[in-house]
Structure formats: structure tokens, C-alpha cells
Amino acid sequence: MKHVESYYAATANLHADWPQLEQSIQCDVCIIGGGFTGLSSALYLTEAGYDVVLLEAARIGFGASGRNGGQVVNSYSRDIDVIQQRYGVNVAKMLGNMMFEGADIIRDRIDRYAIDCDYRPGGIFAALNARQMAHLRAQKTLWESYGNQQLTLLDQAAMRREVATERYVGGLLDERGGHLHPLNLALGEAEAIRRHGGRIYENSAAINVLYGAPNIVKTAKGDVSAKFVIFAGNAYLAPQIEPRLGNKSMPCGSQIITTEPLSADAALTLMPNNRCVEDCNYLLDYFRLTADNRLLYGGGVIYGARDPQDIDALIRPKLLKTFPQLSGLAFSYRWSGNFLLTLSRMPQFGRLENNVYYMQGDSGHGVTCTHLAGKLIAETLRGDAERFDAFATLPHLPFPGGRRFQIPLTVMGAAWYALRDRLGV
């Protein structure tokens, strides 16, 4: 199985393929899923001396990890003020002390393993109205209280100097955020795992897991005997393998395009400082420049992970609302990808058995949170589960209406928030 036809796949770094599992093998830890959650976990564990086998159903970075907007965004899909309101001061403090760690991990991986993935610093949250701007002021104060001193409020004139659009009333620049080529980051991390002795198998979907001591993970042509198993498939984990992981989460689709290349002058005019941008709407738009001066633009959510019939028709109106001056620009690539949504919008970490773990449901903040997850599971297997358990103790709520009605009810809720966005309330 090949990567989806995307800008990322077309510009992926050259790399050796990984074999398909065709035998019975043993290891300390078997990880199911070759996206950022699995890769980060495998890299931390191999660095610590564990014998790790990673099973990927398709190709490394096949799912959301190799298809996303490439934005390194700090915190979680629900910010620390909401976390404190819902779960208390102690939980908020624990999670708040970790909310910038994922981005730091990514930068460390890039530097330590010389991963060529076009990393550029600086991410902007863009406000479309006064209410959103007030929220960004509060967010700056909140994030500074947890140690991020690299934040700058942008008024409307400053936003115009960052992005050639009149759409925004202001924004918040986070220098500890940034953007990159996510598939090349995934491929670089996989190579680092191989250098540490980890074994990676592509086109080797887990089809059954027999829990025990050891656990047995079966594929079509082989099996893995492992002391520990980690489920890291997120939205691309086949639901029949472990139904308990699908009952409290929902795959959702997002769409992205990249334009034809802009001239260097046009790119410099459009976004002079080469930041990435996401707006503050509930159903947000996000965009950035690629290394070869294309505009990459994404937005919207399709609940239930359906592939839309016409991605151009979905994205072009959004892009032109932001950049009407690009009305004649052609699109070179367009694709969809699924992320895993939870009702609380908080990631779901936990244990299925004493020696079986899962990490999923980053709800749109997967690039950073997945890298933190890998560090936390490595800490847990080494005997320090305090930080992992700070997430594992959060309630994992079912969607209203069960599996049959979760999509229409979620769409109704999203429509309400989208109306609020349009009204600016």
C-alpha cells in the first residue's frame, strides 16, 4: 500500500523500505501503528535499550502523521483554563507543565538525528473578531504562567505585516511553535529507530491480539510475542482489533490543498516571516508556505471520516476569503486525512491490561501531543507512571447516542459552534 497522493508523498525524502512481517518473532515491546505516537514511543524505548517491534498496516506515516497541516502547535485541543475548570487545579498544573514539551521534543529529534523536514519557527493564532482577540490576550497570560515567554500579541497592523490579508483583527505569535514537513519527520524518526536496533515492519497490519504473558500480536503472515503491547493506531486502527478503543472516539476527516509554486517575491509578499497560521474558529482554517513556496491551506471537518467528492470546492472558498488576491492560482495537490476526535477533546491514554497500553484521540493537536505520548509511555515502562497517569485518570466519555447517532449529534453541535463563530459571539 502506498502513501496517499499528496504534496508530502511527492516530496518525501529518499528512504529504504521496511519489510513485511513473515515469521514469528519475540521482543520486549510491540507497538501497533507507525504514526507519530508509535514512532515517538519506539524511539524513546529503543534509546532506553528495549527490544522494540513496530507494526504498520500500510507505510510509515501513512495516516494523519504524514498528511496533516505540518503545524507544531502547543498545548492541547482544550487549553489549561478549561482543563482546570473540568478536572481541578492539580490536574491542570500537571498537564500545564507538559503542554510545551511535545514541541521541544520535536526540535530535539530534528537536531539530534539531523532530520531534514523543513522546520521553521513561529506559529500564529489569528483572531477574526474582538471576542477571539480577548481570548488570545487571556491565553498569552495563561501560557506565560506555565513558562512560555516567547509570545507576542499582534494588533491588526502587525498581523498585516505577517500575513497579506485584511481578514484578521489581530493575533498571537508563539515562537515555540512552528511548521515542518510531517512525513519527512516521520521517516527521519523511523530511521533513528532502525539505527537504535528497533525493528519496523510495513504492510503488516495487526489482525488479532491475544493478551497474556506474553501477549501475541498476529498479522496475516506472522506474529509477535511481546511482554508489552502499545496501541498507537489512532484513527487508522481497525476497530475490530480492540473494540474498547473505538467506543469513545470518532474518526474525522480534514482536507488540505497545496497551490502551484509562488515566485519568491510573491511568497515573501504573502507571508514575509514564513510563520504558520491557524484561526480561532471552532471549525478552523490553517495555512502556511512550504519549502518550495507553495501555499498549503486546510480547513473544515467531516465527521465520520468520509472522503469528500470535491476537495477543491471545499477549500477554495476558504482560501479566497483569506487571500482574494490568489483567485487565479491553481492547485497542484489535494488530499484528505483522518484524525481521531474525543468528546472531551482531550487525548485518551490508558491501560487495557496490566501490560497493554493505548494512546489516542489528540483531537487535532496530534503533532506535538503524540511526541509527548512517546516520552510518557517510555517513562511508564521504566517504572515512573506519574505523568502518564495524569492523562490516564481523565474520564473517557462516550459520544451521545452511541455509535449509531454519534456523527449526526456531533454535526449538530459543531453547527452551533460554527454559527457562534460567524456571529462573533
Key descriptive features of the protein:
alpha/beta, nine-stranded mixed β-sheet, eight-stranded mixed β-sheet, 425 residues, 34% helix
How many DSSP helices?
13
What Rg is obtained from the alpha carbons, in whole angstroms? 21 Å
Taking the sheet with the most strands, its summary is: 9 strands, mixed
**SSE series:** HEHEEHHHEHEHEHEEEEEHEEEHEEEHHH
Structural class: alpha/beta
Taking pLDDT < 50 over at least 5 consecutive residues as the criterion, the unreliable ranges are 409-420
Helical content (DSSP H or I, runs of 4+): 25-40%
Overview of this structure, please?
It is a single chain. The protein is built from 13 helices and 17 strands. It has helices at residues 7-10, 36-47, 80-87, 89-96, 101-112, 130-145, 156-162, 182-195, 264-270, 311-322, 366-381, 386-392, 402-423, and strands at residues 24-32, 52-55, 71-72, 120-127, 151-154, 170-179, 199-201, 208-210, 215-218, 223-231, 250-259, 276-279, 285-289, 295-303, 331-341, 348-353, 356-360. Strands 3, 4, 5, 6, 11, 12, 13, 14 and 15 form a nine-stranded mixed beta sheet that branches. Strands 1, 2, 7, 8, 9, 10, 16 and 17 form an eight-stranded mixed beta sheet that branches. Helix 3 (80-87) runs antiparallel to helix 4 (89-96) and helix 5 (101-112) packs across helix 11 (366-381). It is globular, with a radius of gyration of 21 Å.
